Amino acid sequence: MPSLLIKNIGMLATAYGVSAKGGSKQGEILTYQNAYIVADDDKIVSVGQGQIPDEFLCADKVIDAQGKLVTAGLVDAHTHLVFGGWRENELALKLHGVPYLDILAQGGGILSTVRSTRKASEDELFQKTANVLDTMLSLGTTTCEAKSGYGLNFENELKQLTVTKRLNESQPIDLVSTFMAAHAVPEEYKDNREGYISLIIDEMLPYVAQNKLAEFCDVFCETGVFSSEESKRILSAAQKYGLGAKIHADEIDPIGGSVLAGEIGAVSAEHLIVCPDDGIASMAKGGTIACLLPATSFYLGATFAPAKKMIEAGVPVAVASDFNPGSTPNLSLQLAMNIACYRYRMTPEEVLTAATLNAAAAIGRAEHIGSIEVGKQADLLIWNADNLNFIFYRYGNNLVNTVIKNGKIVKENR
Ligand code: NIG
Ligand code: FE
Q1: Residues 6+ apart with CB under 8 A from 283
Q2: Which of ligand 1's atoms lies nearest the C-alpha of 150?
Q3: Which residue's CA lies nearest to atom 8 of ligand 1?
């Protein structure tokens, strides 16, 4: 007897497959009317439309979707989840036109969050982040990537990674951990950046890999942060330790990050606001996913990444929140999806793929999540909407009604 039947689904909309989709495939999704989904335990065992076969009617739990839209759970492939404090003081600076990189160069920005994160205890960080995740869950995020990078020394990077690990074990959202000690050069290494890079490569990376504290490594490749050459050294070392490579590239200045991403076969390159054509070509060649963060462009008042150009070049585009205390204090992936639609001019179908299947691929999970298909994890959302277009049109509200994780209801918003 199956454990779950969701019946009376007005529209089921889903990407399909087990790998990222670019080109015209990014906008090709499956839709079913008058549909049903059957799960047994944590897995989807049947998806169909019309008459429900008798064998499924006796499921332990039956949910009537009342004609609403159902999609796969949202996958947030880029967040800086665990941090101490906030940075609302930077809003005034921003309004006065002080550039993001100037705030960082003056010891603020990321470095101010490093000070707050170092000060916070592991339990304080745990509790604060548990509250954040609870909100994310109600907004429909069922899997979330989490970067370190506010510790910037052995003890505090480890503290962030440990909080992520504990949270992964204690609340419904699956967390995928990324090691990002190369988020900035800490103040104590200001005059010895080589020393900090060696600390990352020779001490932190081997420990993180050995203790399975992260699956990916990320570097902030940017003017005044890490050069393309330095990023290459750090990411190549990470790859030798079996970690997948990610790179914050072309966010503010195009200093070669996206070209490097393609060359080293990075799983994803992130931001790409000012990505040049040779960067797009390199990512297409290297099979790198473009993980775009439209809420960051919105909040920074920056331009928007050339998403359509990337899709046309065959680069799969993922869309994520970039939740962090500086450049995007927003944790709603729904809002990021809406902005992607309005400002990148991606279609609802392309954005759905971006925030589910392509996002899953960007964190190495596309075989298990990101679409509603037999064999995949039963991570599902019932929306307060009758069709896919509606959730892209009605921005600004939480339109998720019910969140199902691993075949169980974990949130009901009403
Ligand atoms: O992805 N750009 C680098 N890292 C974050 C911002 C971190 C911060 O400002 O605290 C980002 O935008
Ligand atoms: Fe980021």
Answers
A1: 258, 261, 262, 269, 289, 290, 310, 315
A2: 10
A3: 326
